[in-house]
Each structure stands twice: as C-alpha cells, then as structure tokens.
Amino acid sequence: MKLSLVALVSAFASTAWAQAVTAIDRVDNSTLWLNAIVGKKNLSTVECWGIQPPFVVSTQPGTVGNKILQLGALANASYSEFPVGPNINAGLHNAPNAQYVVLLAGNGTISFPSGQTPDLLVRSNQILIAVDTPGTSAEGHNSLWAGGTRVLQMPFEGGVHPPHRTVKGKCPS
Ligand SMILES: *[C@@H]1O[C@H](CO)[C@@H](O)[C@H](O)[C@H]1NC(C)=O
Ligand SMILES: *[C@@H]1O[C@H](CO)[C@@H](O)[C@H](O)[C@H]1NC(C)=O
Ligand SMILES: *[C@@H]1O[C@H](CO)[C@@H](O)[C@H](O)[C@H]1NC(C)=O
Ligand SMILES: *[C@@H]1O[C@H](CO)[C@@H](O)[C@H](O)[C@H]1NC(C)=O
Question: What is the DSSP letter of 156?
C-alpha cells in the first residue's frame, strides 16, 4: 500500500515535470538539454537530459561574462573521422562507454530495434549522450553516419553519469 502510493505520487510528479519541461524548454536558457540514448528494461531508447548544475556566468579568463557549464569528469577522449563518401552503417551496437558524443561535422541517424522509439537525427554541432552500455540494453541501437562525419567521444570518468534532470522522449527541437 505504502509502496504503490509512492509509485503513484512519483509517476504524477514525473508526468507533471515532463509537461513543464516540454513547455518551458524554449525559454529555459539556464539548462543544457541533451538527447541521451539510454538502456531501459533491456531496450535502448531516448531521454532528454538537463545537465546539472545549470549554466553560470563565467569568471574564467578567456570566457569572462559568457554562459558556462561543467560537463563533469571525463576520461580517455577520442577523435574519429568517417571516410568521405557514402553513408556508413555502424550496425546494432551498445555504447562502448557511457559518454558524450560531440558531432563536429556531418550527421547521424540513430534507430532502435524495439520499433517503439522513433529515429533520432543528430546534426553537426550537437552533443549527444550515449549510455546504453552492455548490460543495460540487449541489442543497443543502430547508427547510420553520413560520410565525412567527424566526432569526439568523451567517456565519463569511471562510467559515472553527470548529474541531470530527465524528461522522457527526445528533447524538444
Ligand atoms: C536568459 O535569457 C534572458 C532573456 O533573453 C536574459 O535576460 C538572461 O540574461 C539569459 N540568461 C542567461 C544565463 O543567459
Ligand atoms: C582508455 O581506453 C583504452 C583503450 O580502449 C582502455 O584500455 C582503457 O581502459 C581506457 N581507460 C579508461 C580510464 O577508460
Ligand atoms: C547529412 O549529411 C549528408 C552529407 O553531408 C547530407 O547529404 C545530408 O543531407 C545530411 N542529412 C541531413 C538530414 O541533414
Ligand atoms: C537482456 O536480454 C538479453 C538477451 O535476450 C538476456 O540475455 C539478458 O538476460 C537480459 N537482461 C536483463 C537484465 O533482462
């Protein structure tokens, strides 16, 4: 009884929050909202993560007065280039590490074997989070990269996810 009440209240709270965020996202310039590929119930799907803490005004030399936000502790970053030419189908895979993926150029279409999650288009200059690591999702996701796409992969140190708020489904565009 106690348990189901808690579940009910939290379900209500998360629904209310999801609606609030969808509505305020366009004017909420204090939070960085990023699409995240997550493994839930052994399936990969998309959530929208608001990285915490939010933006502050920078006092760092070189960016004084700008909006700035901490991405958290990172390890073992890599840079990779897909060959120029036809699309590259990476096939179904799990995220190799829990990480940020920064698209410097090109684009990618992420699709999901479950059929329940619509494709996610990732464009140049966007930051994606991929945390559907082995053990969280049986099949992972499929990535179709445009030829010439260039990416930075920036794993979270120790696989620890940055603090974030979560909204179900992809971020409002
Ligand atoms: C957010 O936008 C408002 C309205 O444009 C502006 O007044 C405010 O300074 C912005 N805040 C940040 C942190 O950029
Ligand atoms: C960095 O990457 C190498 C090669 O994939 C791996 O052996 C090593 O464990 C990684 N280190 C960390 C801290 O993730
Ligand atoms: C993705 O990039 C390719 C190669 O530059 C381009 O032809 C294609 O139109 C892009 N797709 C989208 C949806 O932007
Ligand atoms: C996820 O699915 C795989 C393949 O069907 C299965 O082997 C594994 O036990 C499942 N894991 C969980 C936590 O359900």
Answer: B
Residue 52 near residue 165 (C-beta atoms within 8 A): yes
CA 67 to ligand 1 center in whole angstroms: 9
Determine the Cα–Cα distance for residues 114 and 41; give it in Å rounded to an integer.
11
With 0-12 / 13-18 / 19 or more C-beta atoms within 10 angstroms meaning exposed / middle / buried, residue 145 is: buried
User: Could you tell me where the beta strands, DSSP code E, fall in the chain?
Assistant: 32-40, 43-51, 56-57, 67-68, 78-81, 88-93, 99-105, 107-111, 120-123, 127-130, 141-145, 150-155, 164-168
- For residue 147, which atom of ligand 3 is closest to its CA? 4
Query: Token digits for 10?
Result: 């939290």
Measured in Å, how far apart are the chain's first and last C-alpha atoms? 40
Token couple for 94: 């799990």
Ligand approaching nearest to the C-alpha of 146: 3
State which of 82, 107, 124, 126 you would mutate to test the pocket of ligand 3, scoring each by most atoms of that ligand within 8 A of its C-beta: 107
- Could you read off the pLDDT of 126-146 as tens digits, one per residue? 999 999 999 999 999 999 999
Please give the model's pTM, rounded to 2 decimal places. Answer: 0.82
Output the ligand 3 site: residues, CB below 6 A. 106-107, 121, 146
H helix intervals, 25-90: none
